[in-house]
Amino acid sequence: MENNETKKSLNFIEEIVVKDLADGKNGGRLQTRFPPEPNGYLHIGHAKAICMDFGVAEKFGGVCNLRLDDTNPQKEDDEYVQAIKRDIEWLGFRWGNLYHASDYFDQLWAFAVRLIKEGKAYVDEQTSEQIAAQKGTPTEPGTASPFRDRPIEESLALFEKMNSGELPEGAMVLRAKIDMANGNMHFRDPVIYRIINKEHHRTGDKWHAYPMYDFAHGQSDFFEGVTHSICTLEFVPHRPLYDYFVDELKEGKDLNDNRPHQFEFNRLNLTYTVMSKRKLLALVQEGLVCGWDDPRMPTICGLRRRGYSPEAVRRFIDMIGYTKYEALNDYSMLEAAAREDLNKRATRVSAVLHPVRLTITNYPADKTELMEAVNNPEAPEEGTHTMLFSRNLWIEQDDFMEDAPKKYFRLTPGQEVRLKNAYIVRCTGCVKDADGNVTEVLAEYDPDTKSGMPGADRRVKGTLHWLSQEDSLDCEVRLYDRLFTVENPGADERDFRELLNPDSLQVLDHCKIEPYAQSLPVGSYLQFQRTGYFNIDSDSTPSRLVFNRTVSLKDTWAKAKNKD
């Protein structure tokens, strides 16, 4: 029995599942499915559906199957099939069985033939524009096709011809004969088969007539024994048609409610990006981004490459929840979920993105020391590593100011700071080039203030990270920002290409990193001390590391936006 606290934690879909199981519907079974079309890479909106479809089955002892909705060979490819599988597994889910809509092409064909024989479907030779013009409006009935009362034998013969390969695409379609005056326009003789003369990645050239989504989806659920067909809100108007075809398919048999039912939740819409596969494909094909896994993309593989963990993505989806109302979710919520997660798992390393020399003038020129650095203060079991300390160091340019304001607690002449895991130093001045640019910061250290030494806990207001010039490595750092300049580019009337953020990627190629990072594998989650969360990109080579910024330590975007 569910207690009140458990009930409060359930979303409305889970409440439906709990009730159905308690009522013994579907023989007490719970079976869901995730049915993506393999015509592109999955994005974070799909991740929300994955978490629902797989999550509810996992939570209540059911099974979730993966079904690839491969009914349109013009857009589909095995590359996308493999990417879909990788993304689901990366998110931490496993499917019970792997199915394809193409597994049911023979059964769907037989069902369509039966509908024709029963006078419930006919072949229409009108163009798609003519059919659309005859659909009517939500307040006005449609007009019947001149082929609506075509003899059954003629439709059967033409349906066979549709699959022969002899006809061009668009020459004719098969339509269900339902009700041209129905208030739900999806019932106005929907197209259920069309001609596509392209080889299918699984069935080859066996088929030239392919079922439409509305005809294949519910039937595939029925064939597989799906109990809860969970989808997004745009399919609400399709639900009556879904039920209609299932009722026709079962041929009047009383299933005692042992049949699939469709339930809908709100899509995941995210600010400063787009979720349209068509637009995402255009970004890739037109070279406006560097592929499907570009870290600026909302694709799951893009988020993975940028350094988001699967736990962070799932945490974000938990934060926004599931409702029956569409909403636009703030990108900063995704970043907040990443910070919360990465703070626990990221290995701390030192990196200097805009280096300037720091010379400790009273430190012996021939001396070096190994300083101990904690790998992750949130996980002491991950241990420590060492950093080389020497007279000649790198620090961030922003960590020195010759003429500093009162509350500047970094290096400025006469002021002390602690070098993290090392000594307290006092700035004594700087060296400039002929143009007045600072090329070297000068300081003196206090040898009695080494971190960890007895009595070395003298307090100073600033702590800086650093690297030794003796062993630091050159590296490339890629700083990513919002892909678009407007909050809701999907709703903007302008061409989405005009809305792209020209500053969404900044490449820094003169950065420094400590050697320890070289021992970590590609994809490692890192925190650059005082800078942000990063990961090691797949473009890295043994001689040159490349890092992607996942997210800054604080939400600097919101501050900048408020200033504007």
How many individual helices?
14
The Rg value, from CA coordinates, equals 31 Å
Largest sheet: 7 strands, mixed
Give the strand tally: 27
Estimated share of beta-strand residues: 15-25%
Uncertain regions spanning at least 5 consecutive residues? 1-6
- State the strand order across the main sheet: 12-25-26-27-23-24-13
Portion in helices: 25-40%
The 3D shape can be described as: elongated
Class of secondary structure makeup = alpha/beta
Chain-averaged pLDDT? 94
N-C termini distance: 53 Å
Quick summary:
By secondary structure, the protein is α/β, with parallel strands linked by helices. It is 26% helix and 23% strand.
Question: What key attributes describe this structure?
Answer:
564 residues, seven-stranded mixed sheet, 27 strands, alpha/beta
Description:
The protein is of the alpha/beta class. The protein is built from 14 helices and 27 strands. Strands 12-25-26-27-23-24-13 form a 7-stranded mixed β-sheet, covered by helices on one side. It is elongated, with a radius of gyration of 31 Å. The two termini are 53 Å apart. Mean pLDDT is 94; it is low at 1-6.
What does the secondary structure layout of this molecule look like, with pairings?
Elements: H1 4-9, H2 12-22, E1 31-34, H3 44-59, E2 63-68, H4 78-90, E3 98-100, H5 105-117, E4 121-124, H6 128-133, H7 152-162, E5 173-176, E6 191-195, E7 209-211, H8 213-224, E8 228-232, H9 239-249, E9 261-265, E10 269-270, H10 277-285, H11 300-306, H12 310-320, E11 328-329, H13 331-345, E12 347-349, E13 351-352, E14 355-360, E15 368-374, E16 384-390, E17 392-396, E18 416-419, E19 424-432, E20 438-445, E21 463-464, E22 467-468, E23 473-480, E24 505-513, E25 525-528, E26 532-536, E27 545-552, H14 556-563
Parallel strand pairs: 1-2, 2-3, 8-9, 10-11, 12-25, 14-20, 18-21, 23-27
Antiparallel strand pairs: 4-5, 5-6, 6-7, 13-24, 14-17, 15-16, 17-22, 18-19, 19-20, 23-24, 25-26, 26-27
Helix pairs in contact: 8-9, 12-13
